[in-house]
Specification:
CATH superfamily of the largest domain: EIF_2_alpha
Strand order of the largest sheet: 4-5-3-6
Distance between the termini: 58 Å
Helix content: 40-55%
Radius of gyration: 35 Å
Length: about 240
């Protein structure tokens, strides 16, 4: 199995493989149990979250060259992404929709992205209620466009895609969680088998004597089978 030689451990990979092979049924069963547990937790213990998105197209001032307009529009997109999560914008959304949320709580639900090499800003909101996610996203897009027009010397971004109501949750992912649970079960049980194998220093054959004791075997006594296992009958004398 393994031996200590100059503070190093040598592992017999063939014997380790055989040890794992003997426990393959237990390893598979453990993976199935963990997969089932992950599925139950995902189904009943994790709240599904829905998301909705809206897209805004950033337009710079007119009268500029096409290249300048494109460059300025790209830079403005980055500025607008910051404006979306500012406190005045979020508090106006909360007020308009009469949300029972702080602006910090609302900020945590929002994701703002800018696809590479575009002047498009995508606003996404996640919530337990798909209808509420859609309402917050649409209101946030409209308030952002209005705030940009009022506070900055640029044309307001155009909403090119209104928010939609999601039909299916984005998270949790049942398939992903079940597969992760199964993999965790496999790994844990395989690790337990490996540890048990490495900790087992029982001498089972003559090669083990050389490994653990460092001496050679000179002879081997055969195991006698037969009469030694028979029980003798005892007759009672009255």
């Amino acid at each position: 199995m393994y031996e200590f030689d100059n503070d190093e451990i040598e592992i017999d990979l063939r014997e380790l493989f055989l040890a794992l092979k003997k426990k393959i049924v237990l390893i598979l069963l453990t993976g199935i149990v963990f997969a089932g547990a992950a599925g139950l937790i995902t189904r009943f213990a994790i709240t599904p979250m829905y998301s909705s998105s809206a897209q805004l197209y950033v337009i710079s001032k007119s009268g500029l060259s096409q290249l300048t307009d494109l460059t300025m529009g790209t830079q403005l997109t980055q500025d607008y992404m910051v404006i979306v999560k500012t406190r005045p914008v979020l508090e106006e959304v909360i007020k308009n929709l009469k949300l029972d949320l702080s602006y910090k709580a609302l900020e945590g639900k929002i994701t703002v992205e800018n696809p590479a090499d575009t002047r498009i800003m995508e606003i996404s909101v996640s919530d337990e209620d798909p209808k509420k996610a859609q309402q917050i996203t649409q209101e946030l897009a409209e308030v952002t466009a209005k705030t940009v027009s009022a506070k900055m010397d640029v044309k307001a971004p155009t909403i090119i895609e209104n928010a939609y109501e999601a039909d299916t949750p984005d998270s949790p992912n049942m398939r992903k969680n079940v597969m992760a649970g199964a993999m965790l079960g496999f790994v844990l049980m395989a690790a337990a088998v490996i540890i048990q194998y490495m900790m087992n220093d029982t001498i089972l054959k003559e090669e083990d004597i050389e490994k653990y004791l460092g001496i050679n075997t000179l002879a081997q006594l055969p195991l006698v089978k037969g009469n030694s296992k028979h029980k003798k009958k005892v007759r009672r004398v009255r």
